[in-house]
Amino acid sequence: MHEARGPGQPLRGVATIAVRPAYLRGKKVNIGYLGDFRIAFERSAVRSWRSCYAEVLKALPRDETQGAPGAFLTAVIDQNMSARRALIDAKRSGFLYEKLTPYRMVNLFARAWTGRGTPSDLKIRRAVSSDLGTLREFLDQQSRQRAFGYRYADGELDRRLRDWEGLSVADFFIVEEEGGQIRGCAAPWSPGSGKRNVLERRPRWASWLNPLIRVPAVGEELRTLYLTHLEIDSSLTPELRRRAFRQLLDRIWEDPRRRQSHMLSFSDFDSDGFAGALGGYLFQQIPMALYTVRHRDDPPIRWDHGETDRPNFEIALV
């Protein structure tokens, strides 16, 4: 965590810079991530932050064998014009934001009717402890095919089960075919004490839909449950992937833990199109995008066609 202020001065900005292991084109690298970025949009504070950020990017060692980031990644809401001006559209800043791929944060509030999606030959069940090895292998295999894939087989899944408050193997829902092969999974999870959203304003439509949507009062916590580790086998056809996702979602929606939250959220990339399988749900979509960031002196990453369609990204951690 980095702060922007001098001795005896009030806080003018804060940001978290983290480095994690990842797959990039099947190779093991480390990547950086900028999160929790908040700054007072005053000329002096923005100027100081731009200079600091450029220096951080420049100071990172370039030899991947020494643990250097293979890329720097961050997410920005499309309508966050202040962040766009300060970061993405910044001139003479010393760093460059390059759009990787758009996505949408999807927030589900209610199911308007009890109908289900089109059934398939797949079944949904809760995971048990004996599924851990197979689950780890499935997640790692899917991640190797994605830009910035999580290295689950190198201890990432075990670390999350150890360090993510309240997460266990039993929280995973598994999509499997008749022979027992895993075709998908997701683990509903809340960051809990590490991340709390408090409602500052209550929209007028909240009272109109009050019988269907539970909206907290102003000043109260908005309890959000995230679909973490959301993977539907990329080898399935797009239609079957969406049907499998809908079956998985319907099962999770009925879970008692989900009923304790105000909304269920997940990130949806164009290549997934899972929002198209949400008939019967009341939901909101927030357009966002992932960006790679580099120092102006560094060369850009050259991507093959379709390579960045579905980066590995956990919106619960933003």
Short recap of the structure:
This protein is 22% helix and 33% strand.
Order of helices and strands: EEEHEHEEHEHEEEHEEHHEE
Which sheet architecture does the biggest sheet show? 12 strands, mixed
What is the straight-line distance between the termini? 14 Å
Question: What structural category characterises the helix and strand content?
Answer: alpha+beta
Strand residue percentage? 25-35%
Q: Which shape, going by the Cα principal axes?
A: globular
| Number of contiguous helices | 7
Uncertain segments of ≥5 residues (pLDDT<50)? none
Q: What features would you highlight for this structure?
A:
single chain, 318 residues, alpha+beta, 12-stranded mixed beta sheet, two-stranded antiparallel ribbon, 14 strands, 22% helix
Structure description:
By secondary structure, the chain is an alpha+beta fold. The chain is 22% helix and 33% strand. It has seven helices and 14 strands. The strands form two sheets. Strands 1, 2, 3, 4, 5, 6, 7, 8, 9, 12, 13 and 14 form a twelve-stranded mixed sheet that branches. A two-stranded antiparallel sheet has the order 10-11. Helix 1 links the parallel strand 3 (27-39) and strand 4 (69-77). The protein is globular and about 60 Å long. The two termini are 14 Å apart. The model has no long low-confidence stretch (mean pLDDT 84).
